[in-house]
Amino acid sequence: MSIDKNKIELVKLNENTWEIPKVGEMNVPGRLFANQETVQELEDEFREGSQWSALEQIINVAALPGIVTASIGLADIHPGYGFPIGGVAAFDPSNGVIVAGGVGFDINCGVRLMRTPLEVADITDSKQRIAKTLFQMIPAGLGSEGEISLSITEIDRALVEGARFGLEIGYGLDDDLEFIEEGGRINGAEPENVSRRAKQRQFKEIGTLGSGNHYLELQEVEEIFDDNTAKTYGIYEGQIVISIHTGSRALGHQIGQDYLSKLKTASEKYNLPIREKELVSAPVDSPEGQEYLGAMRCGINCAFANRQVLSGLTRRGLKKAIGLPLHKVKTVYEVGHNTAKIEKHTVEGKEKTLLVHRKGSTRAFGPGRPELPDKYRNIGGPVLVGGTMGTSSYILRGTDRTMEKTFGSSIHGAGRSMSRKKAKSKFWGEDVETSLSDQGIIVESHSYPGLAEEAPGAYKDVEKVVHAVHESGLSPKVAKLRPIIVIKG
Asked: Which of 54, 79, 326, 431 has the highest CB neighbour number within 10 Å of its CB?
């Protein structure tokens, strides 16, 4: 689609909501839930003809067949491969498409939050010991391998069983599953749709953190904004909690690579538009679309299994370091933010079955949804928002408004403000480590260049991003979490 940039305008609907009216080949409008600063940056990027433009990507997604209501961008939006990161799009399975770029290469990258009975004073004298122990026990870094070595048969089990596979091989607690999205396992995974190369790359990567923006953090609950919801989630001020952020590792990436070429062929076969090379697609009900869905669901389950094992290793690490019993570390919630899922949503007063793509966007279901754990069903599901090593993370809450406006979706993090390449040219890993230490944050990392890539200055201001989504009524704040110990690749 050739975009006449002079015809594109953003219409302000309210303080944190903007619309791009339909023009040209757009099937639906674009809709942004972001602050004025973010919108201005997007417009400048678009008008100046940047190589990558998140605004242009919203417009491209809006032109895909079968898209419903709007092509959505959230407050942490920035350019991605094909789809913007912080993007949401729902498609009617009867005439819509499945888009590999709408899921991304790190399939089901997500966050598990666990709570402990510890408070800050309880670990004041043991922080260094905890950090060193977890760093030794949690495999991290590019190409990192763990203590588990799997056969092809065992890999296939993990791709079908998800988190339960981790439990069956001895990692975690039975009640973990209740507090994982999809119960830690999505149906419809087809291991035969995953290449042998993808499986081989995963033989020793179950139970590994990886690199990039992935992390394990011990955090202090610094502030509570919603007492009732925090109590329901088992969170209180001063408490020590643990966040694990990672995904499907090399297997998910290989699935993404494998299916780019297959979906390119499908796009050409079905005469579907290709506006970016990663925006290739296939009709949902086509053989090619179903094949990708079966493989992508394997990636989802792989990530569930990976985080389950990492949770078990974390519990063991805390027991080794300070004697904390394994059962004292409880899962609050685990939710992914790179997925495509069949879900029921109300559109123009009618319930419809839709395929919802969330790319760098967290499922944020409101009260009453049967997919939520019983404990949270009357209040809405936790939305886990990762900050940077030197800034706060947040717990938000899904609401009726997220269900109405964004297909039950919310932000997943601060969102990058500069590329990794640019960050490495601007920041030094040693300086980042020193700066964090000065703030009382212990960082254990395998790579100084990795620290530079993930420097806090490479991201948007998480406070502003969270404020925008809070003020828009999509996901109100529940709690603010401050990093104390950070484990990085």
From this structure: 54
